[in-house]
Design goal:
single chain, mainly alpha, globular
Length: 449
């Protein structure tokens, strides 16, 4: 009987439950007296734990002042486990001990890494953990060398480690009240954080593909890697140019040309689920806000630490639109046909994401009435929409609404962060109880458009 119950726990349910357990455990750790400098409520501890586990970065209290060193380390560990996925660690541990992996654990990990069949999965998991730690150590070293000019050695080292892990895991948690605004003109900090965000958000498949290309002198990258890299590069470039032009005489007006470009590039990269900012988000004009909302919805890439609908999903949907406009029977992307099940899954992911966003935004528009928000020339609608997209995309950027959220608003954002990390479609599969019967009905013509 117990065995049958275990078999009924699908990979989607296992993933959802594992993150839920991690969030609850983190909440109770943050509620312990040694974790905070000031008394914290259960909902604020739950919000912070969810934000850390789901590598979002939205914060209802200031990370650097509310939490003690112990509390910050707990948050950092939650970011690390949440970024890589707790099932990755547990399955890797079982693999190391037993020397093998059962079918169920294999399916679970493959689903969490994008749903592809992975030969030599144990070695891949080992590579993922070691690769993550390597990139984080390099980032921490470079940031420490910069921070040591400003802080004592151990403080600089801690700040370097914290922000390196937070950046690579696309979490966006910072130890400073205004994120990284104080480093607006610091080339080292900007470049290191941007490199960590891109590396952590591009997906382990792509990282290993690039490494094998360099080491083995292969002719070309895999098909998936080409789609992810080209889409990511295009989004970064388009976002950078758009923000640069829109903010030239606004938030970037006081900067010299090289720093205008640097900050525009940073603010184009960080909405891809990272959440750091070097310019005040609430001071951006509405055009830039719209660009960032779109980037937050798209998010990172499959098999990465980031959220969103994913770059490859966006690429498939755009290819489908182009194919339908050109009346092509097959959806093509880089001279290859895209399978129908991939197209259907991409549409489902986008639909579920927009449906959830719409429902939560409507709820929050009825409950959120923050003092002093919004800024002149805006309505609460903009701030609420931005907050919701940031939560579901596990981004962490905010226009100042987060600290003023009502209890209902906090619960709604917690819900979106959780769904954003696991994936709306994963939740739908976890809830589903009926198996597909593969029945096909007679077709009738429907007028659309």
């Amino acid at each position: 009987m117990v065995q049958n119950k275990k078999q009924n726990i699908t990979p989607a349910k296992s993933m959802a439950i594992s993150f839920l357990i991690l969030i609850i455990g983190g909440t109770f750790l943050l509620l312990l007296p040694f974790s905070s400098n000031h008394q914290v409520t259960f909902i604020d501890a739950l919000f912070t734990s969810t934000s850390a586990c789901c590598v979002t970065g939205l914060a209802v209290v200031d990370t650097g002042t509310q939490w003690t060193l112990a509390g910050q380390i707990i948050i950092l560990l939650l970011i690390q486990f949440g970024g890589l996925g707790i099932m990755t660690f547990s399955t890797l541990g079982a693999y190391i001990i037993a020397g093998k992996m059962n079918v169920r654990n294999r399916q679970l990990i493959e689903d969490s890494l994008g749903g592809m069949h992975i030969p030599k999965l144990g070695k891949l998991l080992s590579g993922i953990v070691l690769g993550t730690l390597t990139f984080e150590m390099i980032g921490a070293l470079l940031l420490t060398l910069r921070f040591i000019k400003q802080y004592p050695f151990f403080t600089a080292l801690y700040h370097g480690i914290f922000h390196s892990i937070s950046a690579f895991c696309n979490a966006g948690f910072a130890l400073y009240p205004n994120s990284l605004e104080r480093y607006q003109n610091d080339i080292t900090v900007n470049l290191v954080i941007m490199a960590l965000i891109v590396t952590g958000g591009i997906g382990y498949w792509v990282l290993f593909d690039v490494i094998h290309l360099i080491k083995n002198h292969r002719r070309k990258l895999g098909y998936h890697s080409i789609i992810v890299i080209s889409t990511s590069a295009a989004l970064i470039l388009i976002g950078m140019v758009a923000i640069l032009l829109l903010e030239w005489n606004n938030t970037l007006s006081h900067l010299a040309l090289p720093y205008k470009v640097l900050n525009a590039a940073f603010q184009s990269i960080t909405p891809r689920t990272a959440g750091f900012n070097t310019i005040k988000i609430e001071n951006l004009n509405n055009g830039s806000i719209m660009i960032i909302i779109i980037l937050m919805l798209i998010g990172a890439s499959p098999g990465s630490c980031g959220g969103g609908i994913k770059t490859s999903t966006f690429a498939v949907i755009m290819a489908m639109i182009v194919s339908r406009i050109n009346d092509q029977r097959q959806v093509r992307l880089y001279k290859r046909g895209v399978p129908e099940q991939v197209i259907s899954k991409s549409i489902a992911i986008l639909f579920f994401a927009l449906f959830l966003l719409t429902a939560v935004i409507i709820l929050m528009l009825m409950t959120e009435h923050p003092p002093g928000i919004p800024a002149p020339g805006r309505s609460t609608f903009v701030e609420v929409v931005f907050e919701a997209f940031s939560a579901l995309g596990t981004v962490g950027l905010s226009m100042g609404l987060t600290p003023f959220l009502s209890l209902t608003g906090k619960i709604a954002i917690i819900f979106l962060m959780y769904l954003g990390r696991i994936g709306p479609l994963t939740i739908a599969l976890a809830i589903a109880t009926k198996k597909s019967l593969h029945i096909r009905y007679a077709e009738e013509q429907v007028w659309v458009g």
